[in-house]
Amino acid sequence: MVAPSQPALRFTTQKALAHRVVLSTLTGRTIHISQIRPSSPTNPGLAPHEISFLRLLEAVTNGSHTEISYTGTTLLYRPGLITGSAAGSGASGGVIRHELSAGCTRGISYFLIPLCLLAPFSKAPMNVLFTGPGVITSATPTGDMSVDSVRTAILPLYAQFGISNNIELRILRRSNPGSGGKGGAGEVQLVVGHQVRLPKTVHLLNPGRVKKVRGVAYCTGVSASNNARMIDAARGVLNPLVGDTYIFSDVSSASFLSSADKANPGAKKKVGVGFGISLVAETSTGSLYSADLASPPSGGEPPEDIGRQCAFQLLETISHGGCVPLAAAPTMLTLMAMGSEDVGRLQLGRDVLGTEEIISLGRDLRTFGANGWGVRDAGGSEDGDIVVSVVGRGIGNVGRKIA
Questions:
Q1: Which of 321, 329, 391 lies closest to 357 in space, CA to CA?
Q2: Whole-Å CA distances, 27 to 30, 89, 122
Q3: Contact indicator for 191, 127 with CB cutoff of 8 Å
Q4: How many CB atoms lie within 10 A of CB 189?
Q5: Which of 12, 116, 131, 390 is the most exposed place for a label (fewest CB within 10 A)?
Q6: What is the DSSP-derived secondary structure letter of residue 151?
């Protein structure tokens, strides 16, 4: 006798859509999301970057099914098995090529962070190459972090769960958002070759003291002196905090795309022009805090202001306390909930735990069948931090169990 299928979990609005789809894929539960921008007069329904993310999930899974209403305001998603870059599942030569259209306004980290959550639970290694005129590698005005911060502040956290081998994030071509915050024509490759049955239980209860600051100042299609000016301004703020501060400089040329001018079909225009800086502070216990800032698409902001503001952002992130910042907390809490059936503990800043994003994540995890969080004050914490206790659900890698 076939067991009856579980009813679809129902959500409303487009908030945390990508993370809800990831949780659906990990737990195997069908989801139904309605009221996606229903009142927008010009662009109702799913945005281009959300549709592109759903197509990416179809490429890295086998058997997933997506239904979108005529207006795009309702989504039904039935998850499949996470296959990664297995042969015959959409990969060509072991690499899945995913192209982003020129209308994409989100940074590539919008796609990378959820993909990194799925990769350890894949049946085969995951190798995805992001190309196209819509790839933006820098920080964006919509709040997405840069690829550098994902590489230096998010991926190292996976080592806490025993996921550390063959993980690589390559920046093949840099880009900044163009006019209107769209496009960039960058190129990024994510390789995750370490698949596990179950993530390890994590206990992070000591944030430690900041011992060093590392960073990357990057510019695309503009003078290299912008990097030196950003680095000098950032060091002027950070040197009183810690003497061990080193910020790398990366200078690259801009990409050229056809201008689509009928009068001159062969003409090309320079895209992805701009500059920015990514900073990461590491503590004595291995905790990481990050900050990102890039030049606005409209321009008009000097490099000194970008470097100084990014340094102040880093100091503000450190002042929130906890073992992980707000940008990394969803990744940590999700992996803890998907791990072995044991109690993991994570110390978070009070301001981080109280944000709408984390509270909404806790509710979503509970809806998908995970256990509720235990919350208590951290003893001996000067900043009033909170210790969050998470009991793993023991879902792990279904593909590995079948194999």
A1: 329
A2: 9, 20, 13
A3: yes
A4: 16
A5: 12
A6: I
Query: Which residue in the block uniquely carries the two structure tokens 């690589």?
Result: 168
Token duo for residue 27 = 């737990």
Q: Where are the alpha helices (DSSP H) in 158-273?
A: 225-238
Which position has the token pair 């993370």? 19
Q: Where are the beta strands (DSSP E) in 207-313?
A: 210-220, 245-252, 255-258, 268-271, 274-283, 288-294
Q: Give the residue among 278, 170, 178 at the shortest CA–CA distance from 218.
A: 278
Taking CA 153 as the corner, what is the angle to CA 247 and CA 321, rounded to the nearest 5 degrees?
100
Q: Are 47 and 104 in contact (CB under 8 A)?
A: no
Q: For the chain, first and last CA: distance in Å?
A: 24
Residue 117 confidence class, pLDDT cut points 50, 70, 90: very high
Q: Are 188 and 169 in contact (CB under 8 A)?
A: yes
* Separation between Cα atoms, residue 123 and residue 304, nearest integer Å: 47
Strand partners, 386: 348, 377
pLDDT tens digit sequence for 231-289: 999 999 999 999 899 999 999 988 777 666 656 666 677 788 999 999 999 999 999 99
Whether the model clears a pTM of 0.90, i.e. scores above it, the answer is: yes
Residue 393 is predicted with a pLDDT of: 85
Contact 156, 289 (CB under 8 A): no
Q: What's 94's DSSP letter? A: T
**Whose CA is closest to 138, among 286, 276, 9?**
276
Residue found by looking up tokens 């990014």 in the block = 310
φ, ψ for residue 22 (rounded to 5)? -65, -45
288 contacts 328 by C-beta, under 8 angstroms = yes
Q: How many residues belong to the chain?
A: 403
Side-chain half-sphere CA neighbours of 149 within 13 A? 32
